[in-house]
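Many introductory courses stop at the sequence. We go one step further.
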Amino acid sequence: EVRMMDINKEIAEHTTQVEAIITKYLPKESGYQKTVMEAMNYSFLAGGKRLRPMLMQETYRMLGGRDDIIEPFMAAIEMIHTYSLVHDDLPAMDNDEYRRGKKTTHAVYGEAMGILAGDALLTAAFGSLAKAELPADRICKAVALLSKRAGECGMVGGQVLDLAGEQLVLTEEEIFNVHRLKTGALISAACQLGVIAAGGGLACVLQGP
């Protein structure tokens, strides 16, 4: 029990550290686009364990990474995760008005702005990848990996299966695939992006969902 408390404390400390890093990549709320930027930031700062960027950073460190080059990658994967939550909460999907005890993005800013905020976060994620001061081949591999894991064969594909489960009775294998794709694909991507950033072995990084 004491050990579990220590782990929880350590995770909380890491969460605070990771959040301080990734929030540096949020847009400034100004200009004609101020409202969508506010909605993006509201969504991004709504809480969470920041597990994906944390896993990425730890993988990078295990492979010898000791600098802040990984930071744009960390921000990118949390932007992807956040956009997926914003869209998942929309009336056309789960129609949720609260997440983690706070009003969801569409409940605060309206459905249209919720869609746009999610779109903007998804787009900004790939812009963040491109900001990393890494060799071009590593950035290209990162873009290819994250687009696959977040797309129709990964996280989005898992959401498709999840929606199908509302109309049909899914088999055990199909339920497993919902979790493997909707949640697991982005978690595995976090670790694999840490490998890419560190220049580790890449033979198996782009295989599988």
